[in-house]
Fold these 2 entries.
Entry 1:
Amino acid sequence: MKSPRRILVITLSNVGDVIMTTPVLSALHQMFPEASLTVVAGPKGAEVLRSSSIIGRLLVYDKQAPLKQKAEFLKELARDSYDAAVDLRNTAIPFFLGIPKRSSPLRRFKSLNMRSRHLEVLAGMGWKIPETIPCFDFFDSAGQASVLGILRDLNIRASSGWILLAPAAASELKTWRFSGFKELLLKLLAAFPHPIFLVGDERERAILEPLVNLDASRIFNLAGRTTLPELAALTSRASLVVANDSALAHLGFELGVPVVAIFGPTHPGKFAHEGPAFRMVRRPLFCSPCQSPVCLLGARKCLDDLAPETVWQACREVLHERFETRVS
């Protein structure tokens, strides 16, 4: 088969899950630079992809939509013909569209890690995955200029080097205790001279505001104030990201920024990453990872009993490698 000229990629819904599929898009663009990529994503996840220059067409698919609306979506999708389909959601859409080369619905993965599994789907189609995959373009120059404008409005002169903290997460069960983040912030303030940004969505803004009171001259609450491309631009210039097992941890990893990720009930083998700049922190217990939305023991010992000192030591390692001066 000739190199495909039009490729359909069906990705996932949640922001963090979509971020972990971006290496597939970067790999496809590297393998077939002349091909046009059409990408289908959920309403939230699509925001991750909007600024990318390698995506020719981005379509939003809402799996909660009425059946009639789904049928209209398929008609819109069929407007173009495709040579190949990479379906990371494993739907029947490529079959309905009659796309000649498509990823198999029957998959035996070698890796447990979800990011690696997405790339295995490409290998299962007979394509050789590049040894080095470039970083996905999560933001463009406009997004970068926009976030720097936000910082100027806050009278922040630094253009890089800050720390990002994401104390909240979509699932409360994946969230380290608030008091732990408070103690960690005090240690970071004492050891780190640059601004610290709290990030999250609009819903989390009020939740994070009390942390600003630790030092309002150096801690800034940006929750709900940035778009996802702006957050990516902000993250790309950070010296450290500290987050629960959440979208920001995955975004920091993809952008090559040092990350300390706090894990509780979710499986680190599936969702953590390997690399010199990624630190995974967890409290090993007989019941963890349970991957359950409700703690079966009635108490989140995997997260509530995780000591701030443990998280701080991981941050210290990264900061010590990042800066010449010793972080004590």
Entry 2:
Amino acid sequence: MRYHIILRYIGIILLLNASFLFVSAVISFFNNDSGLFPLLYTCLIATLFGAFPFIFVPSAEEISNKEGFTIVVTSWLISCLIGMVPYVLWGGEFTATNAWFESVSGFTTTGSSILTDIENVPLGLLFWRSATHWIGGVGIIIFVLSVLPSMGKIGMVLYRTETSPLAAANFRYRTKKTIRIIMFVYVGLTILETIALMVCGMNVFDAVTHSFATIATGGFSPKNASIAHYHSMPIETVIIIFMILSGINFGLLFVTLSGNIRALFKSTVVKFYLGMLAVGVALAAVNIHGTIYPLWVDAFRYAAFQIISIGTSTGFATTDSNLWPPFAQVLILFFTLQCACSGSTSGGIKTDRSVLFWHAIKQRITKFQHPHAVLKTKVDGVAIDDDTLDASLLFIALYIVIVFLSTLAICFMGIDIMTAFSASAATMGNVGPGFGLVGTVSNFSQIPELGKWILTGDMLLGRLEIYGLLLFFLLKSWK
């Protein structure tokens, strides 16, 4: 494996981070806040360590799958490391562990936070915090590939390594065009939401940071009370619309914008995704009406926002769901595990795998009824091979096992089971809030330090779809 080539592309990733750190420092400068020097120092570090390998290491025409895999996983880890530096330099609530937690949570678009007073953090640091969402939301490697000239086979290897196989299957274009489509939709949605939020009364800073968090399905807000701070139905409506859009495969969104509106609503996955959200909102509204909210309009308002926020793995909040009845909380836990579609910025098991799961059950029942039948699973008329089906079912099983083991470990530290389970599920799914000590109006500051490290491991496992991170530690066994 050619480590100098790997260092060259990691250098590019550091330069990407440096550009956002510089913008954050500029915001601190104009606001005359205490985040300026931590951001500038970190920007300088990222620029120096990024520029040297980029300038002095020659580019390669091809890289192996092993090298591409190492570049992708290392890029995520290095980004999280550089992301924590301004937090540590600034101080406050940011111990080394807390800074790592906040950085990983940002880049993986989890949105879980250790901060008890977000509004005390300088605006420059808050912008950097939200920017980590936006960098990580579309994928660090895809972000880089979109701004570099065509990298030929290298770009193809990196793209396939970065992207979930389920997501890649939904794009029918060549690699470079696919990346451009993803970025076109990603940037376009961000701009549209920013404008819409400003029209609804948000200032520019709040509109941009909330758009970063929404389109990346992250959930970091510069306000302690999250979206509840604004008490505004128009703002909530705008965010709901863009959360739903951000949970749909970007390829389908592009096809729809190109004029083929039917493609979106013909998709079995999209119909399942939207249908489950609609059913979840209705059931939650019925359950919280009367006991929590006396008016139907309030029940549907808060149910819609919370269910869609969790169901897209965004994690914004407008109310304290810890106070909701058990039935509504179980609904939220279900959406914490499933989340939205592959090819979007959402985390979790993904709706696509849920669809395949139900098809597999249906196929198995039919097989019992007709033992000699030759059956083939099809989604939208496309046959799903047995390897894809088996891989999806194995992923779901492994995902649940990891959540269970994390829950067990955190319970061992003296944390109650609801907090432990919901924290594990929320971080594994890159969702953000859970229940108990980590509810929508709380934070993760009360989790023991070892627990925070375990949960950041869950965040990375979830963002890299489990196998990515696991295989990284087995590089020596690759042939």
